[in-house]
Design brief:
- With about 700 residues, the protein is α+β, with helices and mostly antiparallel strands.
- The protein is built from 23 helices and 20 strands.
- The longest helix has about 35 residues.
- It starts with a helix and ends in a 17-residue tail after the last strand.
Length: about 700
Amino acid sequence: MIGLYNRRKGNLLYLVILLIAFFFAGITAGLMHLKSLPSIEQIEQYEPTLTSQIVSDDNYLIRTFGAYNYKKVSVDKIPDDLKKAIVSIEDKNFYSHPGFDVTALLRSTIKNIKAGKIVQGASTITQQLARVLFLSQEKTFTRKFKELIIAHRLEKTISKDKILEMYLNNIYLGEGAYGVAAAADIYFDKKVEDLNLEECALIAGMPQAPSLYSPFRNKDLAKKRRAMVLYRMAEDGHINEEQAQKSSNAEIKLTSKSKRITLKKAPYFVDFVMRELQEKVEITEQEVVQGGYKIYTTLNYEYQRAAENSVKANLKGWGFTGPQQQAALISYDVVSGKVMAYIGGKDYNESQFDRVSQAVRQPGSSFKMFVYTAAMENGLTPFTKYQDVPIIIGDWKPQNYGKKYRREIPLYKALAISSNVVAAQVIMDVGVKEVVATARKMGITTPIENDPTIALGSSGVKPIELATAYGILANGGIKVEPYGIERIETANGKVIYVANNSYQRILGIKTVAYMVEMLKQVVKFGTGVASNIGRPSAGKTGTTDAYRDAWFVGFTPDIVTSVWVGNDNNTSTGELTGGSLPAAIWRDYMRVITANKPIMDFMYPEVIVDTTYEPGIHEEELEKILEEEEKERLVRENSEVIDEEQDDQNQHGPGTKTLEEIKDEKEKFNPVPVPVKRIKVKRTKRTAPVPKRNSPIGTSGF
């Protein structure tokens, strides 16, 4: 027992000695690091060293951070409103803490320990300055420890005003601006000392996410961020509520002079990458700019140029050149998810709004893919027949494009010609909830109404999500998320991130085979013939009510590309359909990028279909035909009844039932509802009432 006690005592003593050794080793390492740091005098000579690069998959340098606007200004020339705004939004206890905020630090430390990594910061202005001047941008506990030591040293060495001055001169504020003087010049064409309250508040709100809050890129978001800064200033007593309210409502007046850094190569894709850096890798824009990273992306710049040329040439050819008239395109590898081309708008210098991943637009008939996929998943086949005739569902009367109909047709032909009335019947049979669930599992995250009109694309979607969903069909039912960053290296070549996409089976192979064959029919014989590239491809057109949006989303066995065209102000495009300009953009781009690839077909079970397509019949003509057929049917039935009466009299003699009595019995004992194939023009199909709609319904069908 005594021996056991002595052993335990010895082990405990050993552990204590080990901990003490680690403690002193840590202090020694910290002191050695501090000695290696530049002196305060050297700090004042600091200027940003910008070496981070973004590289395409085919080794083109598509973005560097080497060009910038950097201006120093003394603290006495910086407006009090700007200094107070920065302190309120970034570090309200700046003038009272010793370099770090103990309360905030404890709160974030607990969360970081639970997560096992840095997930929440509590950085003061002094800590942020220490990170900018001395440290790497790695999110590690070691770096955080060094940051605290350096921040404390700065506080002991120089005044609070000097720290604030250095921070305001070196913080990155977007559009290539380093420091508040550069930001005042780039955003407002002013000297920093001439900024007013609302301009000071806008600049103060930018360090957290410079690109996100840039008023050149997103004025509405910049305005909301400015309002938050003003609210904090009022809360801290720097301004009153009336001033805060007035400045919050003030218009953002930016300079008309172009002083921003122009992104000449794939600028929308670069923004997509910057967002991905923050969301997936947890590296902020400031850290990227000052971290010396090399970011390898998935973009194929040759494909990107082909996409840009196709968009530019076709928009011009169709006369779609007004400032509101826009287009978007995303193209990615269906197996890996690598984004190969990305266009968020026709001119980045005019508008930085990314219509690929930020715009929510009505998809029109391109949403029918979800309706038919849900139908295939629930037992229907491409050969299931429906009546392509005018119908009414509750208070909703869907109509085909051009009011043309083809009577009884199989589903694969209904999708190829983009029949609206068949899609409406299918969603009623399959169920709205089932279609919504299918869209959700295939990648649509935007709100979807619980309304059968979604069959025709009444609920908005994002182009990137619609492309993701169609990619599932190209990839054998497996869902992959499109992504832009392949890997990231630090300045010394250390790999700190490698893409690791997830793969999830969403659809069965039979459903995929059915849907791909049906969408191939769209390209071969249906509304998407203008997209044909002379090799196996599939896709769907989409045109919304009043021609507000036009789409073509299509794919080959290895590439999926989504194209949207429309007006930013959601007005009509004239008579632009998905089968026209979007299909042409898709075709011209895909022809270029597939030119040197071997021709291959989709490797799914073969689905043999009849490729003869009858021309449509106009509603007025169809109504006459159906009326004549109805008359013939009544005559035929009356004739059959008379024949039955005659036979009965011959068999039973006098006293048998009259013709009217026989008719009454037929109606009484045969209460069978009219089957779908018997739906007549303008006859109400018995369904639940449709909820009233507050938004236009996509009825075009092309």
